[in-house]
Write a structure and sequence with these properties.
Blueprint: E1 17-19, E2 25-26, E3 36-41, H1 47-54, E4 65-67, E5 73-75, E6 82-83, H2 97-100, E7 101-106, H3 116-133, E8 140-142, H4 143-146, H5 160-165, H6 186-196, H7 204-215, H8 225-237
Parallel strand pairs: 1-5, 3-7, 3-8, 4-7
Antiparallel strand pairs: 2-6, 4-5
Helix pairs in contact: 6-8
Length: 245
Amino acid sequence: MWMGPSTLYSGRTQLRLTTRPSPNYGPRRDGAKPDIVVIHYTAMASARTAANTLCNPDTEVSAHYLIAEDGEVMSLVPEAMRAWHAGAGAWGNVTDVNSRSIGIELANTGFAPFAAAQMDALADVLRGINARWNIRPERVIGHSDMAPGRKIDPGARFDWRRLALESLSIWPSPSVDAHSWPKTDEARFTAMMAAFGYTATDDVELLLKSLRLRFRPGADGPLDATDLAIITDLARRFPVDVNGA
């Protein structure tokens, strides 16, 4: 069933929702239900160009929602169905991410800030998804999280902290203490990354890039005590695959 304007949650503003059905979807496998949200950027010049691609049967790609820069929300695939947005990768023990997720594309080239109207609409869409599927904030992730090294979206300019402040995603605790880690420890770093959800690779360099892209944008150099403190905090507070998820 398609989600119409009356069934999508509207928070501060009235969502401008349009429906543009994409043929690129199928049933979720093995009776799966969505318990992950994956956020992407389109890396295209405009929302209209992205919509044409996501609705073209020749491309074999899609998402459940596409959000334009001005806040228009395009519903492309019913939430109950399996859209083709995630590709190869994993989050925790989930390897068929498409069957377990809802995909949201944000119209953005990958280099520009995300518009306020677009972020407002995203927050409202996430609230609606959570109301319908009870998806935990820690399971709202980026494409780069589930596919380290292969994908970098939604990128360093995406405001994860804002979503966390609205209880729509997560952020490291402000009490994280890097001084508790006087030296780097690659084995511990890899183990904590896996405990949090990064299971698509054990390559330390790729894992470090993915962690910093989301939680330390602008950080550079080798693995350090701050990286270890951040991922240890996240893994302890939000261990992946708890409660059979």
